[in-house]
């Protein structure tokens, strides 16, 4: 039987429910476990972590909205991740990790052999955490690294921290999706990110929704996509002080680039593998993944590319 999913949201979990979760993890019958916003005791959290450590089927773990609520729990989760080898996607959005919590998790996250998607949005992170996260974006393919990173709503990160991240993104050999929405970035930091995007060979999706940008930033991105080759396919600029005309110009250019790639692929007879699509795309009524600049909000990422 194929592994299934356990998804529970916002409930106080009983001991019996925890036992069922742990048994399923140990039996390798769970591919997706979500206890988003649930309340459980420290003892029960430790039991779940031990189940995660033993599971070889678990690919996605959602602990969003405060489940990892203490430093002690970050240590328990780190121990579980050190033993686990199957996890591909980890959600910790809305957890009060602070830099100290990420210090505890860093060793397990940075050396995990399968982890490709990490959500640390709204985790009260600062510059030290960003420094550690940059280590998860290796500059060459010799070391595994993240393909999708979410750092939404971490306003304590300084200009220096974002500059460090921009450098890591520019040289990352694997990152394809970067979500920075609802951080107070402003035009100066956006300019750094534009340089990083221009340098990156892999970044396909950049979410800058609600980051305090103006037409100045949009013009920089427009010049970039108009004059330089880029892997970028989706740029989200909603909820910024940017004119719809500039947003549409950028969208049109990204669409043209995708159409040219499709024609080139057809001319070559598709001799190579098709280009992979991003694991996440913003919500949109349009059928084109490039026509998304006016979208609002992020959906939680789903399982990454490969089926187990």
Automatic annotation (TrEMBL):
Residues annotated as signal peptide: none
Q: Which domain of life is it from?
A: Eukaryota
- Record field: compositional bias (Polar residues): 283-293
InterPro entries assigned: Leu-rich_rpt, LRR-containing_regulator, LRR_dom_sf
Indicate, by first and last residue, each region the UniProt record lists as having compositional bias (Basic and acidic residues): 265-278
SUPFAM superfamilies noted in UniProt? RNI-like (SSF52047)
**Per UniProt, which keywords does this protein have?**
Repeat
Instruction: Region Disordered: list its residue ranges.
Output: 254-293
Q: What's a Pfam family in this record?
A: LRR_6
Q: What is this protein called?
A: Leucine-rich repeat-containing protein 73 isoform X2
């Amino acid at each position: 039987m194929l592994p299934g999913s356990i998804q529970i949201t916002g409930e106080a979990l009983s001991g019996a429910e925890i036992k069922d979760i742990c048994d399923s993890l140990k039996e390798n019958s769970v591919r997706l476990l979500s206890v988003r916003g649930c309340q459980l005791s420290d003892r029960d959290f430790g039991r779940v972590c031990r189940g995660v450590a033993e599971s070889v089927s678990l690919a996605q773990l959602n602990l969003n909205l405060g489940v990892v609520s203490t430093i002690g729990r970050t240590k328990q989760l780190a121990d579980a991740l050190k033993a686990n080898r199957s996890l591909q996607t980890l959600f910790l959005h809305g957890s009060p990790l602070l830099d100290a919590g990420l210090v505890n998790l860093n060793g397990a996250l940075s050396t995990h052999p399968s982890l490709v998607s990490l959500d640390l949005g709204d985790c009260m992170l600062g510059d030290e955490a960003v420094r550690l996260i940059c280590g998860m974006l290796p500059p060459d393919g010799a070391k595994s690294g993240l393909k999708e990173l979410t750092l939404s709503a971490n306003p304590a990160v300084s200009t220096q921290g974002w500059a460090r991240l921009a450098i890591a993104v520019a040289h990352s050999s694997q990152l394809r999706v970067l979500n920075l929405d609802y951080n107070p970035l402003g035009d100066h930091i956006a300019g750094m990110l534009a340089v990083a995007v221009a340098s990156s060979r892999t970044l396909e999706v950049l979410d800058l929704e609600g980051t305090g940008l103006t037409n100045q930033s949009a013009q920089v991105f427009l010049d970039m996509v108009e004059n330089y080759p880029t892997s970028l396919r989706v740029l989200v600029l909603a909820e910024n002080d940017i004119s719809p005309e500039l947003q549409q110009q950028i969208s049109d250019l990204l669409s043209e680039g995708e159409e040219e790639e499709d024609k080139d692929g057809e001319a070559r007879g598709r001799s190579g593998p098709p280009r992979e699509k991003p694991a996440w795309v913003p919500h949109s009524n349009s059928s084109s993944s490039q026509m998304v600049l006016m979208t609002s909000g992020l959906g939680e990422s789903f399982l990454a590319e490969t089926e187990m």
